[in-house]
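Handoff note, outgoing to incoming analyst
You'll be picking up this chain. Sequence as last confirmed:
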Amino acid sequence: MKLVLFQLDSELAPVVGILTDRGIVNASRAFRPSYTPQLTMQVVIDHFDRLRPAFEGLAAEGNALPPGSVRLWPPLPRPGKILCCIGNYWEHAQREPRPLNMFLKNPEAVIGPGDTIALPELTEPWIFMHEAELALVIKGPAKNVKRADWRSAVFGYTALIDVSARGEGRRTWKAGSWLGKSFDTFAPIGPCIVTADEVADPNNLHVRFWDDGQLRHNYNTDDMEHRVPELVEFASSIMTLNSGDLIACGTNHEGLGALQNGEKVEIEIEKIGRMQLTVVDPLKRSWERGVYMGADSTNPEAVRRHRPQG
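Most recent structure output, in case you need it:
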């Protein structure tokens, strides 16, 4: 099932909906909404087993609205935590996995489908890049979850763009690892949460990203160095994961490029869906367009599987 937050009218708070082949069905009559959109979606996550029959009935027979007639919100507008993997993909001729590591990204950076990525008005010599990623939506509380039990802590999946302010090269940024990734609007997520039962294997999903129609990221999540069960075990060994938290699984850096004023960008992940956003740069800076040639990234390589066989 695909769950969304959507807004019918600018004067009304967003409500939970079900994205179906017929359109978006309002699911709010199946339960009592909470105080904020984030808490409302967390209620759905925590009580989905009980809510599922009513949701399935609405999905089959409820009045469906055309997606273009409503405004989609990020399905988790203010996650308690956004944990992001550093790297975490096999690239080029790499034959040894790098140590698993993560950083915290600012939850206030979250935006959703149709929103605008606003590049900061700072004059430091930065380049602002996209990183298309699969994100795990947590069902908690989850602490010290073993790899064999990882599914108990994963409610579903969504797409996340880890927008990053970088200095020279693709692995450095002047503001520090998490600060350079935590500017407002630097965490687009959406367009929906697909429940875990819809994805047989999160380590076999196709991830793509376009910038003004140019395909850049184009990889499979099978190329993760540290796979989803290990990510859940690692993160939950350090901190308690709560419902509505996110773990972004990292990106294949082959295919990185700059985000620039006026561009339309799109992310699509198999089984989850596709969303589009706009980029605005008040300073109207300009970088080389296309795959970032200052990095060891080449777009034709990005579609190849680099995971060592055997």
